[in-house]
Amino acid sequence: MRVLIATVTAGGGHLAAAAALEEAWRSARPHDTLEKVDVLDFASKFYRKLYVETYVKVVEHVPDFYAMMFKKTDNHEDVRKATSFRRSFAHHTNKGFVKYLKQFRPDIVLCPHYLPLEIIGHLKSKGEGSNPFTVCIVTDFEAHAFWLEPSADFYCVAADETKGSLVARGVSPTQIAVTGIPISSRFSAKLDAQETRKKYGLRDDLPVLLVLSGGFGMGPLEEILTELDKVKENFHTVVVAGRNEELRQKICGQDRTHPTHIIGFTRNMHELMTVADLIITKPGGLTTSEALAMGKPILVLNPIPGQEAANSDFLLEHGAAVKVNRTEDLSFRIEQLIGSKKLSEMARSAKTLGKMFAAKSICDAVLAHCDKRSAKPVIDRAPFPRVESAFASRDSK
Fold first, then answer.
1. Domain shared by 149 and 249, yes or no
2. 327 is in which domain, residue-wise?
3. How far is C-alpha 319 from the geometric centre of its chain's CA atoms?
4. 3 state DSSP class of 329
5. Tally of structural domains, the chain
6. Domain check: are 64 and 101 in the same one?
7. DSSP class of residue 327?
8. For the stretch 120-153, what's the b/e string if a residue is b when 16 or more beta carbons lie within 10 angstroms of its beta carbon?
9. Are residues 178 and 256 in the same domain?
10. Which of 25, 172, 248, 282 has the fewest Cβ atoms within 10 angstroms?
């Protein structure tokens, strides 16, 4: 079987979701022909730069404008009316990916971003290409109307609430599986917290606050650390500055009240989360899902209106997080939380919500649904092995 995972560089979450799906599929079906691609890799450098940098700069510098556009476009009736235009625009601006699709001729396409859905939708409407079984994998806890591509054969979503929202917008319940957001198997690994502390030079006698800024290193890290300096309780701070090397070097040169460990981009987030007593972050879908899978309470700081606000609402409703809207309120809330019963309750709620094997669940659900909808059975169909045999021996690096 020929399988394609098609994503887009628009925030690190979509890339991480694609990597998790690739890992899960290859683990269980190593003989399938599988490729993972970034749609923008087939586009011109100008278009790629415009697509990626526009998103990052708008979110970082004019979040109110982003919020307005997010809300204005989140109307499924308006989006449905514009389906033909959106498909045509996506097709004509991504002809390199269209050519690749026609050459690769996948049987199944997994899409943890909506752009490839629009391109495939155009091809299906014109009767071009191989008409693959197309799966929409929503990477937030609420599905924006852009995810509602009529050509999608199947949806995999984060939670029952996400499914309910899609059903309310006209998607058949039989087309939706509640699987969770796909994360790496590393977040199911059982690590020794004490040994992991030693690896990073962290003290054994202090709670650890993990401060995250996302893959692009966005967010008010300096302001956060300034507020943490005001907290009277003792703790150790671990800060991940992402790919923003300039920011990492700047905050490394500053004196701190509490012992602070600052790193750049890392692929060992599961290790850092293992030792964390509280995670301070913006609530992106992937980061949130990783934290929940490891049963870690979350302090949401000033979420961007839009998908982050929706993710924040979900976490707060289920008791897995608290929210601070202004950085200057952070020190007060940290003093309230450290060592409190509330922190333990949040951790339990997080663990209940977590879906550490979501990537495997997606692959299972896709194959099962593909079999039911296919006119003929999928050749060389092999059931996914039990979780223990699929992931127990994986390297936790």
1. no
2. 189-353
3. 20
4. helix
5. 2
6. yes
7. G
8. bbbbbeeeebeebbbbbbbbbbbbbbbbbbebbb
9. no
10. 172
